Amino acid sequence: xxxxxxxxxxxxxxxxxxxxxxxxxxxxxxxxxxxxxxxxxxxxxxxxxxxxxxxxxxxxxxxxxxxxxxxxxxxxxxxxxxxxxxxxxxxxxxxxxxxxxxxxxxxxxxxxxxxxxxxxxxxxxxxxxxxxxxxxxxxxxxxxxxxxxxxxxxxxxxxxxxxxx
Length: 165
Description:
The protein has about 160 residues and is α/β, with parallel strands linked by helices. It is built from 5 helices and 10 strands. It is elongated and about 55 Å long.
């Protein structure tokens, strides 16, 4: 399993990049999973008072919501990223928004402003609207998710974390 991590601030191109990567790998017959770090403190995946919420309040872990269109596994507690990854069986896991995790990463940016705070020794590629302005930043390639996806994939497969399934 390969883990591809994209970080950046809002509207920096993270989801566009991960959509393109997911579509590429799925078209190749590769299984893909995604993990999105949701920063809003008010986010709750369940509605207070609903049956699944009540079961979680009673101590059930996980609670599975199963409907005609979706199946949702809900652990009503914080679980560290590596433990979440251990629960997934996919050949590629796309991770969005885990800025504080020390792992290889693609930085997405609209312009050069946030790069000084986001780029570190784990950064192997930069993408997003900034790719219209420059081709390199501090020795790191700046590539377009729309036009340079094969190069981004090559870099991701070379630098990203690999786990045994």
